[in-house]
């Protein structure tokens, strides 16, 4: 495969990169084969995913072209071996590989694969050509040609990378003390906490109460720190019901703490709290401390004498012995939201990605989207969020949301409810 049959780096419309590699170790070409010809088996992915080098170069803007030509060059003497980061180790090395460059054609070199990256260095060019691709940005790998392919560089792989961002990124703002931008005390006060019903607890200041909760927790005013420890023992991963901080400013802080969102109504004081499931076990254990604590949350809202517990999981979890609140919680009503677990969501998202990339089948677009069930999952999450918002806004009733551990389905619903 030469430079005309498949470019080394393709960026159609700035969306994706691809790297074409071939190895004489994979297939030894006949000495009589012409280096100017490409023989690829029928149905090869290269026919649909590769274009000519001249075409790909024309589709690039001048900045992209210049950067692709110059950013990866380094003197031959600068790097003798594949540079490794701390903890990085070499998993494999192929000494005779050709990189199909869109500008100069095939480039011979050494391909090294580590537990972090794919690293290619040319051996016959000065300055040396370096390709350094972290495994985390690899989206797809496809084979070019087949075992019966003949000709120079007619058998190899094409590596597709995830959407390309930039060669260099310049932050909009200068370097500062980012950790001081967000102040949890100020954020709680912005929402009216502490008040006559809620206080700020430092029981988790060293994360000894719950290692996945923030250091400061808003809890019912009459609940002591000793009560919190007792309740945490009855909840999965010690994630007891708490009113946690809703962050609506500073996007990078929000990204870091986006799994701890909840809300308090500015007028009725109805709250949305979150937790993990109770550890009832197969013997249907109960906890008077947990029952009393849930009642204290209900009592912080003087406009209602009821609390809704929204279990984000499907109701079938109750039949299978999943932890949920029993009739012992007399002031609470349990409702299941029927949201699937994170593994089902991830698989659905993977199917959606496969439908959209690398090619789209227009003839079967709607049926392919339906088969992923992605829109159905989104509908269920939105429906659950609407139910909770209605209880808080219309009924002025506080709501406790949880799933198994309280950090996937719970976060999905709470972020929709409390987001702006």
UniProtKB/TrEMBL annotation:
Pfam families for the chain: Myotub-related
Annotated segments matching region Disordered: 21-61
Q: Which residues bind substrate?
A: 341-342, 403-409
A biological process term (GO) from this entry: phosphatidylinositol dephosphorylation
Give the GO cellular component terms, alphabetically.
cytoplasm; membrane
UniProt keyword list: Lipid metabolism
Q: Where is the composition biased (Low complexity)?
A: 21-57
Report the EC code(s) recorded for this entry: 3.1.3.95
> Does the entry feature the keyword Lipid metabolism, yes or no?
yes
| Cross-referenced SMART domains | GRAM (SM00568)
User: What's the domain of life for this entry?
Assistant: Eukaryota
User: Example GO molecular function term?
Assistant: phosphatidylinositol-3,5-bisphosphate 3-phosphatase activity
Top EC category: hydrolase
The record's listing under InterPro entries reads: GRAM (IPR004182), Myotubularin (IPR030564), Myotubularin-like_Pase_dom (IPR010569), PH-like_dom_sf (IPR011993), Prot-tyrosine_phosphatase-like (IPR029021), Tyr_Pase_AS (IPR016130)
Kindly identify the residues recorded as the active site.
403 (phosphocysteine intermediate)
Q: Does the keyword Calcium apply?
A: no
* Ranges where the Myotubularin phosphatase domain occurs: 178-420
Family under the similarity heading: Belongs to the protein-tyrosine phosphatase family. Non-receptor class myotubularin subfamily.
Task: Report the protein name in the record.
Answer: phosphatidylinositol-3,5-bisphosphate 3-phosphatase
Give the organism the record lists: Plakobranchus ocellatus
């Amino acid at each position: 495969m030469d430079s005309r049959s498949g470019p080394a780096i393709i960026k159609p419309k700035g969306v994706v990169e691809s790297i074409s590699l071939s190895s004489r170790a994979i297939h030894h070409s006949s000495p009589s084969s012409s280096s100017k010809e490409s023989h690829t088996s029928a149905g090869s992915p290269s026919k649909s995913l590769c274009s000519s080098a001249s075409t790909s170069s024309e589709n690039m803007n001048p900045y992209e072209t210049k950067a692709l030509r110059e950013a990866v060059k380094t003197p031959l003497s600068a790097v003798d071996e594949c540079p490794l980061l701390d903890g990085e180790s070499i998993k494999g090395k192929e000494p005779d590989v050709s990189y199909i460059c869109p500008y100069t054609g095939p480039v011979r070199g050494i391909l090294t694969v580590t537990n972090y990256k794919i690293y290619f260095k040319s051996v016959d060019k000065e300055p040396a050509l370096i390709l350094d691709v972290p495994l985390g940005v690899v989206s797809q790998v496809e084979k070019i040609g087949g075992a019966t392919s003949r000709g120079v560089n007619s058998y190899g792989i094409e590596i597709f990378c995830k959407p390309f961002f930039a060669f260099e990124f310049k932050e909009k703002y200068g370097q500062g003390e980012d950790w001081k931008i967000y102040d949890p005390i100020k954020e709680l006060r912005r929402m009216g906490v502490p008040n006559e019903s809620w206080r700020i607890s430092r029981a988790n200041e060293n994360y000894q109460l719950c290692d996945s909760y923030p250091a400061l927790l808003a809890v019912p005013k009459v609940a002591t720190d000793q009560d919190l420890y007792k309740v945490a023992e009855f909840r999965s991963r010690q994630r007891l019901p708490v009113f946690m901080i809703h962050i609506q400013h500073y996007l990078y802080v929000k990204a870091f703490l986006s799994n701890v969102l909840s809300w308090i109504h500015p007028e009725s004081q109805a709250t949305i709290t979150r937790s993990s499931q109770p550890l009832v076990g197969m013997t249907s254990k109960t906890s008077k401390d947990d029952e009393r604590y849930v009642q204290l949350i209900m009592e912080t809202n003087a406009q209602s004498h009821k609390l809704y517990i929204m279990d984000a999981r499907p109701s079938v979890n109750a039949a299978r012995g999943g932890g949920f609140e029993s009739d012992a919680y007399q002031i609470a009503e349990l409702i299941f939201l029927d949201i699937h677990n994170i593994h089902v969501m991830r698989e659905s998202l993977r199917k959606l990605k496969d439908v959209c990339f690398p090619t789209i089948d227009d003839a079967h677009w709607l049926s392919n989207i339906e088969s992923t069930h992605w829109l159905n999952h989104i509908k269920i999450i939105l429906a659950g969020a609407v139910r909770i918002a209605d209880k808080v806004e219309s009924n002025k009733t506080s709501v406790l949301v949880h799933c198994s551990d309280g950090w996937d389905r719970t976060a999905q619903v709470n972020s929709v409810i409390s987001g702006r």
